[in-house]
Amino acid sequence: MDLVSSCRAFVSVSETGSFTAGAAVARIPQPVASRRIAALERHLGERLFDRSTRRARLTQFGRDMLPSAKRLVHLADAMEHDAKRVKLRPLRLAVPGTCTTRKLAELDAEARALDVFLEFRPAAPGERAELVRTHEVRAAITAVPAEEGAWVVPLGLASAVTPQERVIHLETLRVGRSGRSPRRVWIQPEDDVPHIRDRVVRVRDSLGLRPAQVAVADSLTAAAASVFGSADMLLCSAEQAEELGLGWRPIGGIRLARGFDVTAGLGEDAHHLRAALRSGIARCLGVPETEEAQ
């Protein structure tokens, strides 16, 4: 027996004095209201209504039980209201600063169709997991090595002039005898993580490039500005290069890629984001369609 539904029918009929009117108030057919009240009477072991009269008149037992039934109905209504309110509470999600406003809006719209309401907190890769730990956000898209990532974004080098070569080899950055300033590779904050930065540094050292030829910028804007005004190159994704109007090529001899996964205070939040919003997050991060399909 559904105790709440039976009590709701009991309260509605008692307040209207009619099985027909009470059923209408409870938004159920009159036979259903009668069956639910009869089931409640069997459950409690006593009659709630005196059926010898035309009106639905409460028995003494019914009058004594009515306050408890009302409390149960009110509590059930309050619980349903709280559930709706909680479902509308935004899920605060820390995201990379590389996610554009449009892509975040598209992800938000996709989530709303699933009754998930997102609130975004752009943050640097080293901060995002910490925001989860301190409960400032419920979940974060965190940076991980590409082989561990649920999403992978290949990286290459972009410059103000599209290179003629199909790939760029870092050894071409060696300083010659021309006296010209050495070309630099700029690393943006999103890629200032050990599994990307340290690999670039190791290649730099193995090729005999100067230490200053690999530099970490304070922001993507600063890195892009340095590239626009020189022959320097930006380590970035193909999508970022296109947004900035730069010519992009993959790097020869080394595969660099961003890896992303979800960190959340609750495992169910992480699972839901990975599963239900996988494609939307992929587009937001700039995952190529070929990588997304894998």
Description:
The protein is an alpha/beta fold. The chain has three domains: 3-85, Arc Repressor Mutant, subunit A; 89-142 and 260-285, Periplasmic binding protein-like II (D-Maltodextrin-Binding Protein, domain 2, 3-Layer(aba) Sandwich), CATH 3.40.190.10; 156-255, D-Maltodextrin-Binding Protein, domain 2 (3-Layer(aba) Sandwich), CATH 3.40.190.290. The chain has twelve helices and twelve strands. The strands form three sheets. Strands 4-3-5-12-6 form a five-stranded mixed β-sheet, sandwiched between helices. A five-stranded mixed β-sheet has the order 9-8-10-7-11, sandwiched between helices. A two-stranded antiparallel ribbon has the order 1-2. Helix 1 (3-16) crosses helix 2 (19-26), helix 1 (3-16) packs across helix 3 and helix 5 (101-112) packs antiparallel against helix 11 (278-285). It is rod-shaped. The two termini are 49 Å apart. The model has no long low-confidence stretch (mean pLDDT 91).
